[in-house]
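The protein record quoted for completeness.
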Amino acid sequence: MRSSWLFALSLWILGILFYRAFSAQAQPRMTLLETADSFNARRFWVIVGLSAAAYGTAVVSLHNDWQRDNLGRSPKFRTMNDLGHWNQMDKMSHAFASYQQSRGLWGGARWSGVKPSTATWIGLAGSQLIMTTLEIFDGFSPQGGFSWSDIGANLLGSGLFLGQQLGWGEQRILLKWSAWRQRYPIERLYPFSPPGSENWGTLEARARSIYGSGLLSFLLKDYNGLTFWASVNPRSFLPKDRAKWLPPWLNLAVGMGAQNLYVAEGYEWKGNLNCYGPYCDHYRVDPRRYPRTRQCFLSLDIDFTRISTRSRFLRTLAYLLNAVKIPAPTLEWTDRGLVRFHPLYF
């Protein structure tokens, strides 16, 4: 469900950035970046209005996209089991999006003076409303379907945020993201069926057709270039009197990535999804040259919110930056038996 990524990012920005762009003019003693000590109705309804506008815009956009893709066909809801698709990178994107939505909505609620525990449940409920709505639209998609494994990934992301806030009152395990631009092969790739077809393509064209070609598509959709991280703060798990030697902002990050994903499963695909019959072009990528590969990473990271500062602006910036894994020395393992060290990996 790649559409969820775009809305996840937009809501995260709305929830963390846009609400800080509105000052509470009725309370001049409270600065723009200052969290309200008690419930502030003006701020709360600003957050509700922005979130509702973003949610409504996304729903209308998805509805229009569905109508265009269905080409006048009657709506038919269906489910699908896509747990094995995309080496589970799409599931990681769901968990990451849900986690960041919960974090953003929690931040907006706290800025409005909502109690911490209530704000935590608002984050969970808002995130699941968003992601479940998007999943329902996928259920009516002619080329997709409602996925229970996506729902599970959504709950995992929001649940990770909720459990830590209620249990520890802080986020000791952060879900983060990084991306690196991929260079795809441009050599000609001919269909293996029907025999003799000259309708050649390239793996670059294939990647652009499924992942998009723009900057936003690269940052949010290209599973070959994305890495999702669980960034853990070791010091927060140790007794305070025994961990003074360890920087409070230093994290250890475990990442997951993938390479050579040109189709959800396997190595074959149809050139035109709307083509039916014996004359449709079918392509196959050579698994010996481009094997589907699962990557695991171990790296260092920074929890920016644990860097002490008196500046409210810098604290807000740190909250935003905590969604991104910093470049750092990294050790990589793959399911193909490769082990290598990257002096700097993002």
User: Anything to note?
Assistant: Residues 1-170 form one domain. The chain is about 40% helix and 15% strand. The longest strand covers residues 250-259.
